[in-house]
Amino acid sequence: MSMKRSKPRSSGKSQDSQSEDGDYFAKPKAPEKSWEELTGNKPDDAFTPYALTSRFDKGQLVTHPKFGKGVVTFVEANRVEILFQDGTKKLGHGAS
Questions:
Q1: Where is the composition biased (Basic and acidic residues) (predicted)?
Q2: Where on the phi/psi map is residue 94: left (φ > 0), alpha (ψ -120 to 50), or beta?
Q3: Each residue's pLDDT tens digit, 59-82
Q4: Hey, where are the domains in the chain?
Q5: Less Cβ crowding at N or C end of the chain, within 10 Å?
Q6: For residues 87 and 42, what is the distance between their CA atoms, to the nearest angstrom?
Q7: Cβ(84)–Cβ(35) under 8 Å?
């Protein structure tokens, strides 16, 4: 004797109505600011000289001898990502 299984019910919402992340209720991502918007009108004394032994925070303005002026966009334990005019660079920081 075979048993017929019924089709599982859906909630009535299609998969297409979800955001790209798959989370329907997620807030829309804010557009990322450009290098010019983040560093453009800042005075030179607002920038901290980059050093491998220094610790940096997200949003901190940095000046690098090779890459120039930049802003810290991501911070990990011993690595930072800094947005320079030529693009994002991954650099070390805060050897402890």
A1: 24-36
A2: left
A3: 999 999 999 999 999 999 899 999
A4: 33-92
A5: N
A6: 19
A7: yes
